[in-house]
Amino acid sequence: MCLKIQFIIGSFLSVWSAQALEMSVGKIPFLQAVNGSTVTLPCTYASCIGIENLYFNWQFNDNGTMQKVCESVIPSEGVVPDVTIFRERVEFVGKNHQNNVSILLLNITFEDGGQYTCFGRNPKEHHKNHSAIFNLIVVDELREVDNTLTIIIASAVGGAIALLMGFMLLKNFTLFVLTKLEEKNKECLVTSSGIDNTENGLSGSKADSKPTPKKK
Ligand SMILES: *[C@@H]1O[C@H](CO)[C@@H](O)[C@H](O)[C@H]1NC(C)=O
Ligand SMILES: *[C@@H]1O[C@H](CO)[C@@H](O)[C@H](O)[C@H]1NC(C)=O
Ligand SMILES: *[C@@H]1O[C@H](CO)[C@@H](O)[C@H](O)[C@H]1NC(C)=O
Ligand SMILES: *[C@@H]1O[C@H](CO)[C@@H](O)[C@H](O)[C@H]1NC(C)=O
Ligand SMILES: *[C@@H]1O[C@H](CO)[C@@H](O)[C@H](O)[C@H]1NC(C)=O
Description:
Layout: H1 2-16, E1 22-24, E2 30-34, E3 39-41, E4 44-46, E5 54-62, E6 65-74, E7 84-85, E8 90-92, E9 103-105, E10 114-122, E11 128-139, H2 145-209, H3 211-215
Parallel strand pairs: 2-11
Antiparallel strand pairs: 1-4, 3-9, 5-6, 5-10, 6-7, 8-9, 10-11
One 2-acetamido-2-deoxy-beta-D-glucopyranose (NAG) binds next to loops.
Region (Disordered): 196-216
Protein name: Sodium channel, voltage-gated, type IV, beta b
GO cellular component, one term: voltage-gated sodium channel complex
């Protein structure tokens, strides 16, 4: 349900801000990858008013200083631009195909891990800056991040079930106690009717007294 709401808000915002240029690194703005592997840093742009000589670059935040990874000017949509690459083991794979400006990092090292910014500026909208940030986490072996989440969810569900069972046990116990109390009340009613009986007994004694005249 949360996801749905997020999606609705997300699409509302994208409709609302679609006028301007928008850089997007996708729904999941981070990636965990093993050293030595090859990864794609995703980025696409979108603009309602269209682009003309769109300047874009990728920057790597190296300990606070932004290092250009690559840069280019895209004359128009659908044109494969010439991209200048400043770093080793980097390829421009987006090729501006469907506004795709993704890059490929080959044979990643631990030093490649960090924050990457996909930056864009459209002269059509008075050189306003737009960017999106993607995080690359380099590990020496994939840790099962999802598993911990599954365990958390499982234990939460388990806890909820335990709580529910506890509640039901408590409910049953309460019902049991209530039934017992009711039984006791019935007993009380019985005893009160017993009192009636004693009254009857009294009348019985009257009845007993009746035979006395028989004795007469
Ligand atoms: C990744 O890093 C680990 C630990 O530094 C190393 O043992 C391993 O050989 C590396 N793998 C690759 C493919 O570079
Ligand atoms: C990164 O920054 C820290 C302090 O902010 C500094 O001590 C360290 O030398 C820096 N490392 C590099 C490689 O620049
Ligand atoms: C962008 O291009 C890359 C490389 O071809 C591809 O892996 C990725 O799926 C593309 N992204 C979109 C949104 O089309
Ligand atoms: C990948 O990088 C490691 C060290 O970082 C190097 O030994 C290896 O030859 C590289 N492989 C390729 C295919 O570039
Ligand atoms: C846009 O980014 C450039 C650097 O690429 C910077 O010099 C400029 O001040 C930024 N403009 C705004 C309005 O943020």
